[in-house]
Design brief:
Layout lengths: L6 H13 L16 E6 L3 H5 L4 H12 L4 E8 L2 H10 L7 E3 L3 H6 L5 E4 L6 H10 L3 E4 L7 H17 L3 E3 L7 H11 L6 E10 L13 H7 L5 H4 L2 H4 L2 H11 L5 E7 L11 E7 L5 E8 L6 E8 L3 E2 L5 E2 L15 H14 L7 H20 L3 E2 H5 L48
Parallel strand pairs: 1-2, 1-4, 2-3, 4-5, 5-6, 7-10
Antiparallel strand pairs: 7-11, 8-9, 8-14, 9-10, 11-12, 12-13
Helix pairs in contact: 3-13, 6-7, 7-14, 12-14
Amino acid sequence: MKNQSTRRQFLKQGAILAASTSLFNIARANPKGPAIKVAIVGCGSRGVLAANGGALKNFVDAAQLLGRKVDVVAFADVFASQARAAAARYDLPESRTIVGFDAYKRVMESDAEYVLLTTPPVFRPLHLAAAVAAGKHVFFEKPVAVDPVGVRKVIEIGEIARSKGLCLVAGTQRRHDVTYLRNKARIDAGAVGPILGGTVSWNGKVPWVSPREPGQTNREYLIRNWLNFTELSGDHICEQHVHNLDVANWFLGRHPVAAIGYGGRARRVTGNQFDFFSVDYDYGDGVHLHSQCRQISGCYNRVGEFFRGASGEVYGGGKLTGREVAIPEIKVLSENGYVQEHVDFINGVLDGQPQNRAREVAEATMTAVIGRLSAYTGKQVRWSDVMQDVKSPFYNLALSPAPADYERDGEIPVPEERAPLPGDGVDIRIRPAME
């Protein structure tokens, strides 16, 4: 399959954009500086096309709060229909769309200062590396990878970004939500005492499925149905539950040392993922957290976090009971964490104090990965197995097809649509990338 965009086409598009006399002006009045130039890679629901407008709308709202105007210089997507629909939503011409599996490369050649990465998780390390190499400030969605190799790559890229003074903000909106920020400050001030244990949950239904349609290539099918393939999403323990696991790491101030879990599948109608996971995370010093996540309709739903301390307890961003403590006032421009994370993103750049969230979101992703690997294989998986011990059978695991495989000529295989079988050792889906 040939790439659908070329450098010549992109330069032609750029000339059209430069000739335009109108900017996509977001500021309501009295802009405080030059237009912020942004591009988005991945125009689907999380990027642009959801009813709530997705990450680009969050960026737009943040810019409004900061009194800045925005120029959306590029909408990049594998599918032309999605890129065009995204541009149309903002009343911008098709000349601002870039299409193909290599579209992200053309975005990095543009004059966008900020880039939003909202493609399926498997592409995150590849796209993030390209953005940082091009000197872009990046908002990138969670999870940041689907396997240990990818997670470690993101940590490496994060350090490169730090050395270049680039801002990296991730889609872990709870870390920007004022209710969570206040509870974290209270915990740090001793309101509940040392955390002794807790439960984190994301129990709901399968968000959507996209059955294979006649005439679809393997690439198209996998991308359209990415949510239901571990190779693209990391399974729902990574794709959804990573939010709760990130809160656990954040509130405890450290990542787990090991995971042992189980899961299964009885209801899914497509893809190769589990219906549920139940994982015991060992955080050391006798602290264990129970992680549970499920995607089955018609069952009891619960999404959130609960922690019990030596002298109190706390529900994520909700009720806290314990000691009375004094904390500094926490100010935000938006009580919507999805918007506030973009306020922090833009402000970090404008103020010359860029945030770098790469390691924390990578560690949250790895927390999910070791839970998944334990449930898939039936083995205990230690943090050292995926981060330090090069002799561990888990250290070099990379899912296939790899991100770069989608850009190459020739067809790619569709992974077998069956669930992993614990006890079989390293599952067939956990294998090196294609040559």
